[in-house]
């Protein structure tokens, strides 16, 4: 009941010994994540105590993978070092790199995404909250106590809206929630997650959260139309955004009617996706659709 991250995942944390790395490593461990090591060349050979668990610090991702069998890394390094961190992880052959860091220069993101692709490393982010498979593993900064395991898959550009929908649908629960990030260039896309949820036998419905700017949601709509048989419910942030104003997310670039919330809503609805006007309405649409699916199955 998961995509990309399961209870079997073994997680390294690049930047674990920094302030954010320490705080969120503790939270990941509390959520049941198998954090097998940190990476810091200056502190290699030490261990860090997190309550009842001592986590070793390795000098490199390659060393950590060799010693622990790690297959996931979570990147908490400063923006200037993010490109090198992801490149190092890809060179080591890690399967999944979750890049939490925000403020990474776009040219650095372009470079490490392209490089990781040549090495077979999936990148989630940057500038993202990571992903969580409730009850199994949590790689990033998503709160683990606001939902439970269930049958909804969620993919979102927005961290805050990820948390809100997780909370509003907590009685149903989630298979996996993936925060892909809102930068102009991200690794894993809405489409990648839609494909994975389509193939996951325990995901019954997918929630897609987008926002103004770019054309990712329009491309996702086309993919849903052609390839997804499971119900999809969506929310697009930015219907009330004033024209001609700079938005918070780096990817929220609107030009004319291109990239507007209305244009995205129309594309999604044309593909058979129900689109909520607010996060709360979106949650209600999910509940209504799940109930109709249940009734149809009984009939």
TrEMBL record:
Q: List residues of the CoA-binding domain.
A: 4-104
Q: Where does CoA bind?
A: 17-20, 43, 100-102
Could you say which residues bind substrate here? Answer: 163
Q: What is the catalytic activity of this protein?
A: GTP + succinate + CoA = succinyl-CoA + GDP + phosphate; succinate + ATP + CoA = succinyl-CoA + ADP + phosphate
Extract the Pfam families matched here: CoA_binding, Ligase_CoA
Enzyme Commission number(s): 6.2.1.5
Gene3D superfamilies on file? NAD(P)-binding Rossmann-like Domain, Succinyl-CoA synthetase domains
Gene Ontology CC terms, in alphabetical order: cytosol; succinate-CoA ligase complex (ADP-forming)
What SUPFAM superfamilies does UniProt report for this protein, alphabetically? NAD(P)-binding Rossmann-fold domains (SSF51735), Succinyl-CoA synthetase domains (SSF52210)
Q: Does the keyword Lipoprotein apply?
A: no
Q: Tell me a GO biological process for this protein.
A: tricarboxylic acid cycle
Its annotated pathway reads: Carbohydrate metabolism; tricarboxylic acid cycle; succinate from succinyl-CoA (ligase route): step 1/1
Asked if Ligase is a keyword of the record, the answer is yes
Q: So where's the catalytic machinery, residue-wise? A: 249 (tele-phosphohistidine intermediate)
InterPro entries on file: Cit_synth/succinyl-CoA_lig_AS (IPR017440), Citrt_syn/SCS-alpha_CS (IPR033847), CoA-bd (IPR003781), CoA_lig_alpha (IPR005810), NAD(P)-bd_dom_sf (IPR036291), SUCC_ACL_C (IPR005811), Succinyl-CoA_synth-like (IPR016102)
Q: How does it assemble?
A: Heterotetramer of two alpha and two beta subunits.
Q: State the PANTHER family in the record.
A: SUCCINATE--COA LIGASE [ADP_GDP-FORMING] SUBUNIT ALPHA, MITOCHONDRIAL, SUCCINYL-COA LIGASE SUBUNIT ALPHA
What's the protein called, per UniProt? Succinate--CoA ligase [ADP-forming] subunit alpha
What organism is this sequence from? Streptomyces mirabilis
């Amino acid at each position: 009941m998961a995509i990309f991250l399961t209870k079997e995942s073994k997680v390294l944390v690049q930047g674990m010994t920094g302030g954010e790395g320490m705080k969120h490593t503790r939270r990941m461990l509390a959520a049941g994540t198998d954090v097998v090591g940190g990476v810091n060349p200056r502190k290699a050979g030490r261990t860090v105590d997190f309550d009842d668990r001592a986590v070793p610090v390795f000098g490199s991702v390659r060393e950590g993978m060799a010693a622990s069998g790690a297959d996931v890394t979570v990147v908490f390094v400063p923006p200037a070092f993010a490109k090198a961190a992801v490149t190092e992880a890809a060179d080591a052959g890690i399967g999944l790199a979750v890049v939490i860091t925000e403020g990474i220069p776009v040219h650095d993101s372009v470079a490490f995404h392209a490089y990781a692709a040549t090495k077979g490393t999936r990148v989630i982010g940057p500038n993202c909250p990571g992903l969580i498979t409730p009850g199994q593993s949590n790689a990033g900064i998503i709160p683990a106590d606001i939902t439970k395991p269930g049958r909804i898959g969620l993919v979102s550009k927005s961290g805050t809206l990820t948390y809100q929908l997780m909370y509003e649908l907590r009685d149903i629960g989630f298979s996996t929630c993936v925060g892909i990030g809102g930068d102009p260039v991200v690794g894993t896309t809405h489409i990648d997650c839609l494909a994975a949820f389509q193939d996951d036998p325990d995901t019954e419905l997918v929630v897609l959260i987008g926002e103004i700017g770019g054309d990712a949601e329009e491309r996702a709509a086309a993919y849903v139309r052609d390839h997804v048989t499971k119900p999809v419910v969506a929310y697009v942030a930015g219907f009330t955004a004033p024209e001609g104003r700079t938005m918070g997310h780096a990817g929220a670039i609107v030009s004319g009617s291109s990239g507007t919330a209305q244009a995205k809503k129309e594309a999604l609805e044309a593909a058979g996706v129900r689109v909520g006007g607010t996060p709360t309405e979106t949650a209600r649409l999910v509940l209504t659709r799940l109930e109709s699916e249940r009734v149809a199955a009984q009939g």
